[in-house]
Specification:
Radius of gyration: 14 Å
Number of strands: 0
Distance between the termini: 23 Å
Strand content: under 5%
Shape: flat
Mean pLDDT: 91
Low-confidence stretches: none
Largest sheet: none
Number of helices: 3
């Protein structure tokens, strides 16, 4: 999945498109835990993302 996403990212950038990648940070990954399919963590993951996403987007926009 990651390599497919990287390939599509590169194609869009080469075409002159502005592309911003939003990926989970350390806090998000910790909320996911070792099993990304564990539905018991869904609420925790959501709450963590609601806290981390605004800063992640702000940083991505500044560096784009």
């Amino acid at each position: 999945m990651y390599s497919r996403l990287s390939g599509r990212y590169a194609v869009l950038k080469q075409a002159g498109k502005r592309v911003i990648r939003i990926e989970p940070g350390p806090d998000d990954l910790a909320a996911f835990g070792g099993n990304l399919m564990d539905t018991r963590r869904r609420q925790r993951v959501f709450e963590t993302a609601m806290k981390t996403l605004p800063l992640t987007i702000e940083k991505a926009l500044k560096s784009a």
